[in-house]
Specification:
This protein is α/β, with parallel strands linked by helices and 386 residues long. It has helices at 3-10, 43-46, 55-65, 78-91, 102-119, 139-144, 148-151, 169-179, 200-213, 283-295, 298-316, 339-348, 370-385; strands spanning 22-26, 29-32, 37-40, 95-99, 126-130, 161-164, 181-186, 189-190, 196-197, 216-220, 244-247, 258-262, 321-327, 330-335, 351-352, 354-356, 359-362. The structure holds pyridoxal-5'-phosphate (PLP). Pyridoxal-5'-phosphate binds at residues 101-103, 106, 134-136, 187, 191-192, 220, 222-223, 248-249.
């Protein structure tokens, strides 16, 4: 039996996989079972921030792996402490809770928001999220996700979430007031929803409304975090200060980790026993993440912005492209051709791309070689034109 037939027989049918088995890679190149080479513009959906088998990341992970792979949160370990310190110092936030995924990081943020409101004596528990958002696959984060088709199959979902329109401050304020919300949670760029960035004026107005009403402002930076948008975290593009932000995906560079990062206001909302995770703060995952975060400096972010400008200008000018959206190296392309045809052509011609709704979505490694990126963009242009 081949990998494909075994997988089809024994793995639950939740993924509509491409007819492609990947076996190895290096940097932004990956190889299939026949040795065919692909330029990877997917990074495992924004996870392998420095590509496959990046040497510094491998060194950080393996040296931790061979000394202490796991203990438990009953004890102190240095990678967890140092990673929390690094994230807080780089963002002016106060404290971090580590989990293993983006959805779990959001679950923690939801608990922080509810506990913050109840500690204050407010009769508030609803959380407002935006229509077309994506916040995860657990029952609560599905409920938070502002897309009806995710809701219908798993009723009853946890209650306590209301939805308003992105970039419509009146919609947000009205729905927040009607529902007595304790927090507003949003992605700085809606990823799964089609790579749509929020507008700065809207974000500023939401921040002001939250401040005036002691409502927590939460950014879901699971996909937009860790350099992806050209800033360390996506909200930094809007010059706002969240009370809580969550991240995952690129943080681990390829190992599962999530983080719920809490600012001064809510830093003591959760206390002993209020939350926990067996694997959360795992030393190996944290050592990898620390190496990732430490390398996302101004120089790298400038490079991300330069590469982004290149892709935006090349593809905006390409026949068959209706629009290009997103920020940094999180790019959505609306093409005249169906996106599945574009992806298929690219794959046949050695370039791996993603989709988001009806758009082509690119999430290349932050350090992708410029020449490789150019080569991949030429293939995409041909795919779109053909
Ligand atoms: C991917 C994603 C999640 C879910 O992350 P998992 O690690 O799959 O649980 C949540 N929010 C956003 C914005 C995401 O892109």
């Amino acid at each position: 039996m081949t990998t494909k037939t075994i997988d089809k027989q024994y793995v639950l049918n939740t993924y509509n996989r491409f007819d492609l088995e990947l076996v190895s890679g290096k940097g932004s190149l990956v190889y299939d079972e026949n040795g065919k080479e692909y330029i990877d513009l997917t990074t495992g959906i924004g996870v392998t921030a420095f590509g496959i088998a990046d040497e510094k990341w491998v060194e950080a992970v393996t040296s931790q792996l061979t000394s202490l792979q796991h203990v438990s949160n009953l004890y102190y370990t240095s990678p967890c402490a140092l990673l929390a310190k690094e994230i807080c110092e780089r963002t002016n936030m106060s404290k971090v809770f580590f989990s293993n995924s983006g959805a779990e990081a959001n679950e923690c943020a939801i608990k922080v928001a509810r506990k913050y409101a109840s500690d204050k004596g407010y009769d508030r528990y609803n959380i407002l999220t935006l229509n077309n958002s994506f916040h995860g696959r657990t029952l609560a984060t599905l409920s938070a996700t502002g897309q009806q088709h995710y809701h219908e199959l798993f009723n009853p979902l946890p209650t306590g979430f209301v939805h308003a329109d992105a970039n419509d401050i009146d919609s947000v304020i009205n729905i927040a007031k009607e529902n007595n919300v304790c927090a507003i949670m949003m992605e700085s760029v809606q990823g799964e929803g089609g790579v749509i960035a929020l507008e700065k004026d809207f974000v500023k107005a939401v921040e002001k409304f939250c401040k005036e009403n002691d409502i927590l402002l939460i950014f879901d930076e699971v996909q937009t975090g860790n350099g992806r948008t050209g800033k360390l975290y996506g909200y930094m593009n809007f010059s706002v200060t969240p009370d809580v932000f969550t991240t995952a995906k690129g943080l681990g560079g390829g190992l599962p980790i999530g983080a719920c990062v809490v600012g001064e206001k809510a830093q003591n909302s959760l206390g002993f026993g209020d939350h926990g995770s067996t694997y959360g703060g795992n030393p190996v995952a944290c050592a990898g993440a620390l190496s990732v975060i430490s390398r996302i400096d101004d120089k790298l972010l400038e490079e991300v912005t330069k590469k982004s400008e290149y892709v935006f200008s090349e593809l905006s000018a390409c026949d068959g492209v209706e629009s290009v959206s997103g920020m940094g190296l999180m790019i959505g392309i609306k093409t005249k051709k169906p996106v599945s045809d574009v992806i298929k052509y690219c794959m046949e011609n050695g370039v791996l791309c993603l989709s988001a709704k009806d758009k082509l979505r690119l999430l290349p490694a932050l350090n992708i070689d410029f020449e490789l990126l150019k080569k991949a963009v030429e293939v995409i242009k041909t795919a779109i034109k053909n």
